[in-house]
Specification:
This protein is mostly beta strands and 206 residues long. The chain has no helices and 19 strands.
Length: 206
């Protein structure tokens, strides 16, 4: 298992018609979003326009969560509109004609069809709290990647004999070899304010 902490200095930022995007993680590392040659990508976007049209991504499954909301998504005839509150996660297909209403900051996970699957959830830590990371299935034959991004506050990841601190805007990446699982991993609260950490888990398909 490999554990890496990535600070905002290691992220890539870009502008788009409705706001700005910060790329937190992409695989493989040399992949480019513009080329659509990535297996998965985790990014945070600031939506500055009240109405935005999503770029079609027919090769990808998507999961989105507003960090501050609300955010309303519509998908044409694919499914009824959905209004998300802060930290609510929603899965949808990148091929759907997706539009959003509401100015918000959000987190996006993109997963290439036939290459990987995944999920995303919010973990909220109050004073003196400590949470066990949700148990996941053992890594597929090709391994897993777990990504912890601190949306607000601060936390510490305790795993075995190691402790890794996580401040607002920072990311911890766990690369799991085939058959590995972060058994016993616990997320602790630091500081006085409530901490909000987003966990994204990616499983590669053998």
């Amino acid at each position: 298992m490999e554990i890496r902490k990535i600070t905002p200095a290691g992220f890539k930022e870009s502008r788009w018609s409705g706001g700005s995007t910060t790329e937190l993680a992409i695989h493989p590392p040399e992949a480019l979003y513009a080329q659509r040659d990535f297996d998965f990508r985790l990014s945070s976007a600031v939506v500055e326009d009240d109405h935005s049209v999503f770029t079609p991504l027919p090769d990808y499954h998507r999961i989105i969560a507003p960090i501050d909301g609300p955010l309303t998504l519509s998908f044409g005839e694919a499914r009824p509109p959905v209004t998300l509150g802060p930290l609510d996660c929603l899965s949808f297909e990148g091929a759907w004609p997706t539009q959003s209403r509401g100015k918000a900051k959000d987190l996006n996970l993109m997963l290439r069809h036939g290459v990987c699957t995944g999920d995303m959830m919010a973990l909220t830590l109050s004073s003196a709290a400590e949470l066990s990371l949700p148990a996941g299935a053992p890594a597929h034959n090709s391994g897993q990647v777990w990504l912890l991004w601190c949306a607000s506050g601060s936390a510490v990841l305790n795993l075995g004999d190691s402790s890794t601190t996580l401040s607002e805007g920072e990311l911890i990446r766990l690369d799991l070899a085939p058959g590995e699982s972060p058994v016993g991993a616990r997320l602790g609260h630091t500081g006085k304010a409530t901490s909000r950490v987003m966990l994204a888990r990616v499983s590669f398909i053998a």
